[in-house]
Amino acid sequence: xxxxxxxxxxxxxxxxxxxxxxxxxxxxxxxxxxxxxxxxxxxxxxxxxxxxxxxxxxxxxxxxxxxxxxxxxxxxxxxxxxxxxxxxxxxxxxxxxxxxxxxxxxxxxxxxxxxxxxxxxxxxxxxxxxxxxxxxxxxxxxxxxxxxxxxxxxxxxxxxxxxxxxxxxxxxxxxxxxxxxxxxxxxxxxxxxxxxxxxxxxxxxxxxxxxxxxxxxxxxxxxxxxxxxxxxxxxxxxxxxxxxxxxxxxxxxxxxxxxxxxxxxxxxxxxxxxxxxxxxxxxxxxxxxxxxxxxxxxxxxxxxxxxxxxxxxxxxxxxxxxxxxxxxxxxxxxxxxxxxxxxxxxxxxxxxxxxxxxxxxxxxxxxxxxxxxxxxxxxxxxxxxxxxxxxxxxxxxxxxxxxxxxxxxxxxxxxxxxxxxxxxxxxxxxxxxxxxxxxxxxxxxxxxxxxxxxxxxxxxx
Length: 461
What we know:
Structural class: alpha+beta
Radius of gyration: 23 Å
CATH topology of the largest domain: FAD/NAD(P)-binding domain
CATH class of the largest domain: Alpha Beta
Mean pLDDT: 86
Strand order of the largest sheet: 8-7-16-17-18-15-19
Helix content: 25-40%
Low-confidence stretches: 102-143, 445-461
Distance between the termini: 37 Å
CATH architecture of the largest domain: 3-Layer(bba) Sandwich
Largest sheet: 7 strands, mixed
Number of strands: 21
């Protein structure tokens, strides 16, 4: 419990990964810091529900082994990343085809080393009685799902260049909606629809490709230089590791903040807490509630449906994307094959993500779609949970500044994925930028005050 007389140099409002990461850096620099969280536990949207031995992520965030902040944030040294199989599986025209497999286990300077094999993969033989009328091709994906061999070579070359391009050069590129930018660069429509749209939908939760082309390029750069992965034990592992690494008594849950200023925080049940600086590390809407005038972005809604079965599909530890867009599921995986800690022995956990507003009867629609994607009956699969998050991922339409100011004025700061990129990397990165700004304003000594955060920020964006 907090006493009204409790005092800290910095009060962080919100115990998501951005606020916890900022608190780690502040305390490491010798600045007394308190973290206040209204919920009964830390983590914000990074929540993992536990049901009968299953660990079910509410939002199913995808991480990458190439996220710098996962390696450099104090407190995350014990994080174990479980990678998906290299590349992704594309479901197109009734086939499952692997694409984007990196050249080595550590990551690709190019990608799509398997696309030539995909183009020549044998098609299923037609039935003996083929209808005379043509069968409609979903979403215009006629021909090879990724285009011609020349298209493949160009895409390999583009991703190779992107993987080696400094972040500041990516952020200096002309900006447009991602779909328009890809078309303007001459990327064939088949390649966009068959590979880049489903991939970027999985990475950015934006199947319409309205996201800033710069943010899309950063996402593709991440994909080309690393492996998609999940944190062992569930999404909650990240905030829990950060919280456990803080000194005892730093984080106070169940404390609702009602107002903030540059030198004090007022709570609903614990009075006023005096301080030298306040860092708002809540979601965008809660931050605007405490500081009217802060911009609240639009959001991409996400629904995650979790099923279990004792006969898992034979897709291994792969992320399966629907290039045909033939149902509500954008991507799905047997996540217990990626991280065995997420399901009890003898059971498989299949987690599927629906982007946008979910359809009526979402579980039935998802089951029907999964039966086509995996090529196996799903009627006997048990539904464990359906998690809907209306404000899951901040939208990043062009123009978008992934380095929005974290310093509002001396003594008042804000961080979160809504100030950077709408990813876990962006949330951690914004916490890093905010702690550096606070230390600079407070004149604190220590390594964080002496270090220039900008070069690291450019590498991590």
